[in-house]
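Section 5: illustrative case.
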């Protein structure tokens, strides 16, 4: 795996701007690296190596389902979707401008925009509560997918928890002010809202130990009273206070 990464980096370092330079650089790397074991003619070695690297990059998601899988690869990026001359260019330029060779951040922007289009009130709506909830939903799902692949990434886990808390507060405010919009947002974004408890106490180890000790002492005292080892306390007699003359 490390050798494949080095070979791809060497291709990208040697390659020029044209496609022929990229293929020639790939053929040179294949000749110097016989461990790759590519089949076919040497003329297709560069293209095969690029295809192997691309397949490895797309299949290295750990087997988890992503929210970006439903995006079509022929969809153009966010900056080029309204350009009129895009349909005239050749296939290579179209692939460069489409999601077929786009980064994850570009795909996430388009996915968030699709979620915003489901819940926005008007075409110019960009700051409403529903739009902010849709943006946070896309980011939270992206954080979840990242943490599934990298469970030790504490920084992104903290960002995900902060985003979840922020979205929960917005949903609570939206439920109290505009309940119809709240139902529409939860239905379109597949959010399962759970009502917060009336009383929530932060559980610590010290509180758990004190609670367990108190229950244990209460159970022992109750058992001793039932066995007659402890007599019931008689109420104290209150002495009358002397009357001042």
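Designed sequence:
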């Amino acid at each position: 795996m490390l050798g494949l990464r080095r070979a791809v980096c060497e291709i990208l370092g040697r390659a020029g701007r044209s496609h022929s330079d990229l293929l020639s650089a790939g053929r040179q790397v294949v000749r110097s690296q016989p461990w790759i074991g590519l089949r076919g003619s040497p003329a297709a070695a560069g293209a095969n190596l690029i295809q192997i690297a691309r397949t490895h990059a797309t299949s290295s998601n750990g087997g988890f389902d992503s929210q970006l899988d439903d995006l079509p690869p022929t969809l153009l990026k966010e900056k080029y979707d309204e350009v009129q001359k895009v349909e005239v260019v050749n296939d290579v330029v179209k692939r460069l401008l489409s999601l077929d060779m786009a980064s994850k951040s570009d795909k996430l922007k388009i996915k968030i925009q699709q979620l915003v289009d489901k819940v926005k009130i008007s075409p110019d709506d960009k700051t409403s509560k529903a739009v902010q909830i849709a943006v946070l939903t896309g980011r939270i799902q992206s954080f979840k997918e990242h943490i599934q692949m990298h469970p030790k990434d504490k920084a992104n886990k903290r960002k995900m928890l902060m985003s979840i808390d922020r979205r929960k507060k917005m949903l609570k405010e939206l439920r109290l002010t505009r309940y119809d919009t709240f139902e529409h947002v939860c239905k379109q974004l597949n959010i399962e809202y759970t009502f917060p408890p009336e009383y929530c106490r932060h559980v610590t180890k010290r509180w758990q130990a004190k609670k367990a000790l108190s229950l244990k002492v209460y159970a022992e005292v109750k058992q001793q009273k039932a066995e007659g080892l402890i007599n019931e306390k008689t109420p104290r007699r209150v002495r009358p206070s002397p009357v001042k003359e």
